[in-house]
Amino acid sequence: MNVSLRNATTHTAIPLPGVDLFPSRYSWHYHYGPDQASVSVRGDPNSMFNLMSQLGREVIIRNEFSLDVWWGILYSMEIRWGSRTINVSLGSLSNRVVVKYTLKNSKGTAKDKGTAWVTNDDSIARYGTKELKVPGGELSDAAAEGLRDWVLAQRGLPRQVLQTGQSQGGSASGLLTCKGWFSTLNWRYYYNASKSSVSNEQMISDIITDKGQFLIGSDLIETYHTTVQTRDGARQAGKYVIDLMNIGVNGATDAILIGWVSKDRVYRTSYGENLDQLKLYVDERDIWRSPNGTEVPKSTCPVGLYFHLQGVPSTLVQGGLFPPSDNFIARSEYDVASRSLTVEPLLASSPFNLTETE
Question: Whole-structure pTM over 0.70, yes or no?
């Protein structure tokens, strides 16, 4: 298996001389598609420092069959060398900031207000827009603007966190944490004042068109549900999309609505009308197969399907000691070193751990 970093706009590969990347684990979710990934890295210290400049790049993981099985954005990294560890993350980045606050007049009457947005344009050009609404409490106009400007100055660019400790030698190593492209829908808030109704799929499409800065569009099935377009802007765009996805498809059998960001960054949805065609069979050797008997590699991280465990004693199922045989896979995670797949059934609290045999 291998990992490549690419320019998020042109998709051209970025050469990383002196650095080796090894995928550790990655996951898929039935509403996001590619969810999270961890990549181990090692190399000489100078090359590792250069790697830190690649935050925000596109990441592609390819499995042992030369299939692209995960894609997303390089979100954070930890680099260790000698006695030092440096962490840097887009999690601390906010390059478009507003402060929401309360202003009292001379009579003590409170009024909810918000400052104008301010931006770090250089940061936006490099990483994309990542918004933050800061709750300011009771403030004057001048104090609210001062707080807003201070937050932008502190968070407008990713900041490095340095930790020192016992020396681990001269070589450098690290861990890259990646997130799927769907997560970037939660970088921006979504507001819509319209009180008219549209279909749920049209609402999702509109949100993605407006706030999906890294997505190029959507390809959505009909849900036969409608929604009022009004959204107050208090929440991020991705959260509104998930609200609509959770409603599902009206009047369909087994109508769990499945969504994913494809490799070409189109958000697509689907659902299955025929349960038998959506089922994977897992035999006693933990081999996964499709309904026609074709083996499904665990490294493809299957999700949005049902799995049927073969060979489970009926007494365990009937006695309530084991879940029913058909379980919808809401999230799956593949561990590269152990070649094991963890699948989490929908609404289940305990995942099944299935380890690949030689």
Answer: yes
